[in-house]
Amino acid sequence: MDTLQQFLRHTSIAYFSMEIALRPEMRTYSGGLGILAGDCARSSADLDLPLVFVTLVSHEGYLRQEIGSAGEQVDHPDPWRVEDWATQLDFMAAVDIEGRSVWVRPWLYVVSCPLGGRIPVLLLDTRLEQNRPEDRSITDRLYGGDAAYRLKQEVVLGVGGARILEGLGFEIRKFHLNEGHASLLTLHLLAKQTGSDVPLQGRLDKVREACVFTTHTPVEAGHDRFSYDEVARILGHGGLVDPDLLKHLGGEDELNMTLLALNLSRHVNGVAEVHAETTRLMFPGYQVGAVTNGVHVPTWAHRSFAELFQGILSSWAHQPERLTRCEQLPDEAIWNAHQSAKRDLVAAVAKATGQMLDEERPIIAFARRMTGYKRPHLIFTDLDRLREINRRYPFQIVMGGKAHPQDQEGKALIAEIHRHIRELAPELPAAFVPNYDMELARLFVSGADVWLNTPMPPLEASGTSGMKAALNGVLNLSVLDGWWSEGWVEGVTGWAIGEGGRPAKEHASACLEKLERTVLPLFYENRPRWIWMMKQSISKIGSYFNSQRMMRRYGSEVYLS
To answer: Of 62, 134, 226, 555, most Cβ neighbours within 10 A?
Structure first.
């Protein structure tokens, strides 16, 4: 417990997230939400902010993806050894689940900054001998199981996390809910005031003053909902608050975790300007601001670019806003750094798939969670036209991404992509790299030439992978949604798909048209202009869309308000 003392004295803000990407070896994340949380922690350490992060230990990870002979995704557990990376703390707290006590013990991992900043991360664990066998598995699989399993996880995260903080001695002033998974925390804070002579409205206002809610998805399926029968069975008929009050706060027909967080948080924000507008339409009557996401620059800059940045800006990692000076870098230095990153990607693709790529041909990369609204198959809509473009301007395609185990549409898209890859071979080289994770992401976002993003608007919340790519001089070709609506300057930082209000059904042809008439001709016929755009991408996007700027905004506009 002595290791905690340095944090207890000044930590006043708790950041709750179901997942967090701390390092590739720790399988406590599935995708963008966890990557963002990890970047928040890293920048909090850089800025020496008074935060503690709370998450689940997820012993079995999210999933290890294997691709079968027919191109289908095969799901496997992805276990890791928490004791190799974190320290178990000598403290437990209990939560009530199905009428019995389930004990929760935290592990401590410390995120460190080269300048000395340190941030504690608590990983909650129910795999304890004090628990029944069925309860020990609650913190095993990230986003695993059925609705009951998910609700139990959210009890552990929201209620258990709050009780762990209290028991360890943290005095928390603000609770930041990164998505709705920790929304039950608000009910715990309300229940703590039971017996108070303060009127209900005053107690609700006290909870709201303490809570910050960041919503991340405009997709209906992304908002957790639970039947009240399930809630009564797992939380008990008394629950944490009166059932009628719970329905007033969380929805009449079912418990909507997003609605609960909206009703009990003073500050609510989306993760891009467009996303905030979409959220206000989804939940009319609520004030939803925007704090556009950013990425942790030193984590996502390829070593070749990090060396370039260090040569002209010794403080680039701590003050990424100074990357505006990268426009002064010599063209040759930028191109050599890019080719170094590209060689690393080419080597990784060959090792994983056996597909040999040509370092002299442009690589178009797409790597996201594989699900319907992200439309990963869009580029393959017209294979004949794709072949024709390739004959004039040869290029290559690299893809990666996992589908949720229960997302049958996403799994079907992975199989479809593999079918298209086979149909295009050997004329147009393409590869799908299995088991996309944080380590592969670093190679993809730095080694590609073009970063492709084709979501169905307005369903993209932010899309931080494109920010990481831009930081490495990779040019974005993207539908105008999420962060790209803010970062896009046509022909300067990248290119838009479907600008001018073109309907979504025309995005496939618009994508191929932009590749054929603008992107690929520029790569082959005007290399100086291409490199100029790379420098614009780094200086204009890397200097602004970073997690230092994001956490400074949360600090000054949200946590201190």
So the answer is: 62
